[in-house]
Amino acid sequence: MRMRNVAVLSHIADIDGVGSAALVKMRYRIPLGNIFLTGHDRDEVAECASVIGRMSRKGFTLFITDLNPSADSARIYERLVKRIKGHGGRVVWLDHHVWKQEAIDRIARKCDIAVFGENSEMCATQLVHRFLGLDTRFANEFADMVHYIDLFLPTRNKEYARRSEEYKLSIGHYLMRGSHESQQKRLRHLAAVIASGRFTDSRIHAAAAKFKKLNDERIALVLKSMTHLSRGTMLAFSKQVDSTDACHSMLVESGAEVSVLVKTDTGHCSIRSTRVNTVPLANSLGGGGHPHASGFSVDLKKYNFFRTKQERWRFAEVLKKKISGAGLP
Q1: pLDDT confidence of 153, banded at 50, 70, 90?
Q2: Residue 1 in this model has a pLDDT that exceeds 70
Q3: What pTM, to 2 d.p., does this model score?
Q4: Cα radius of gyration rounded to whole Å, the chain
């Protein structure tokens, strides 16, 4: 299989997405331009799908990792898979999120290989690692480390904890500014470092250090401004902050069971809990994820970019109804 005949589309926002893409690069030595990274935003998915679609030809293989079709993006993925298959290519989808039956019928069944579904054993990086047969010391350790990071599992391995923090902060810095394409370019560097058999480099160190100070400041503001949505659920608004850090801090500070963080710069919303399943709430809002870490996106224009307290209260009322319907505290 020629390296230019392979591409990967993966999740932009965390090390499982970037890491699983890096392992595809490691295995096939694909050019950095053949790595595409996206969130769940429809426009981002469409932008990547458009470029990938033009690359498709006979013998072309697309790996899709750490992504599941949302209500907004399902048709885009369906058309992309159909186009690649129609040109004589292959699609291998390796994911570990819960899929709706409609997505299984319309998309997964049309792929050459599709692995998906919530489990406590393998994240996307591990699925790719096993599928590609990357049995090297570095690849084995990297996949094991991402397993702990992505599934929020406790570990006594201090190196795993240190690297997890560095990945999280550097990715936060890379996503802070610029267009979607410029964000992809910055994160491709992280993927290239991992694909070369290194965990980090000086550029990644510097990016993490720059974001840490801002992140700490934003979390302090989040804790001052968070409010109760219900008896056991807290809500806060912020921008340019690590969602997992902020949500965890909200849970610790408030003693609540669920935290919801809305990014007012991107419309990305994160839901975290250590006790209850958050997926029903995420699904009810057009999103998805894992039982204790899920999310959804909101149209910022619909709420005037949350510029006023009234708009935030209006959004909070919508969330309250969804929380009640999802059976959350």
Answers
A1: confident
A2: no
A3: 0.86
A4: 19
